[in-house]
Every structure is written in C-alpha cells, then in structure tokens.
Amino acid sequence: MYQQILVPVDGSATSQRALAEAIRLATLTGGRLRVMHVLDDASLGFAMDAYAGPPGAWLDELRAAGNRLLDNAKAAARQAGVETDTVLCDSFSENVGALVSDEARSWPADLIVVGTHGRRGVGRLVMGSGAEYIARSAPVPVLLVHSADTGA
Question: β-strands 4-8, 32-39: how paired?
Fold first, then answer.
C-alpha cells in the first residue's frame, strides 16, 4: 500500500504540510517519496520581480532555488528514514498539473500528496486550482492537504 508517493512542492507553507504528511505516510507504509518541483510561468514572474541581476540569469536562479527546495525536502525525508529522490522540471508551456499526472504515470506512483489552499469562489477562478486539476487527471489516488488557515 502506497509504496511510491509523489509529492509536488512549490515552497509554500501548504506544500510543506503536504510533504510532512507524505513523509508520515511513507514512514508508516515503508514507502519511498519522489519530490517534484516545476519551474513554470508563475515562478518566472516571481523571479523577475525579485531578481535584479541580468535577465539571462533568471532561469539559472530559478533552477538553483528549485534545487535548494528539493534538497531541503529530501533532507527532511531522509531524516525521517524515508528513501527519497527528486525531480526538477522546466515547463513554460505545459500545465503543472498535467506534468504531475504524467510523472505519476511514468514513475509509477501509488499516491500523490499535494497541498491545496482551499480557495473558493472568485479566488479559485482567478488563481485556478492546480490541486483540483491533479485530483481530476491523476492516474492514482490523490491526498489533498489543506493549508493551516482553512481550518481543515
């Protein structure tokens, strides 16, 4: 049961909660994790706002930050005794949720654990819902972990 658990992370507190839950599950089942981070249009936009260096170095900075995020996730899992590997994807044209579902198929995962902000109404329409897309398109069960501020 749940021997291969895929965890997409983006550095948010919600994705950190999902990672912690995935580590807990993997510990209980003797499973392993694959932690995934996707560089997409949103991360490029944030980098452009926060980075003051030469434009050509933005992508290098994004990759370095993504690798640090993955290294930290891997260290947390290994500290709990969970075997973990990582995947960094660049995708400026494909939906992040589709990439997560594709990774779940190709690895193959038994479960996807993903954080969700639990947005509703206009917030969901404006921001979209990557977690919802993953839940609808995933080839395996999906565990949604809510952010601390949703009360769930």
Answer: parallel
Kindly report, residue by residue over 29-63, the tens digit of the pLDDT.
999 999 999 987 555 544 445 555 666 677 788 88
CB 15 within 8 A of CB 122: no
Q: Which domain holds residue 35?
A: 4-42+68-150
CA atoms within 13 A on the CB side of 73: 34
Q: Residue 51 falls within a domain, yes or no? A: no
- Strand pairing partners for 144? 114
pTM for the whole structure: 0.84
**Domain for residue 117, yes or no?**
yes
Pairing of strands 32-39, 84-90: parallel
For residues 86-114, one letter each, b for 16 or more C-beta atoms within 10 angstroms of the residue's C-beta and e for the rest, the string is: beebbeeeebbbebbbebbeebebbbbbb
Q: What is the DSSP letter of 53?
A: S
34 domain-assigned? yes
CB 1, CB 110: distance < 8 Å: yes
* Domain-located, residue 57: no
Number of structural domains (the chain) is 1
Here the CATH number for the domain that contains residue 74 is 3.40.50.620
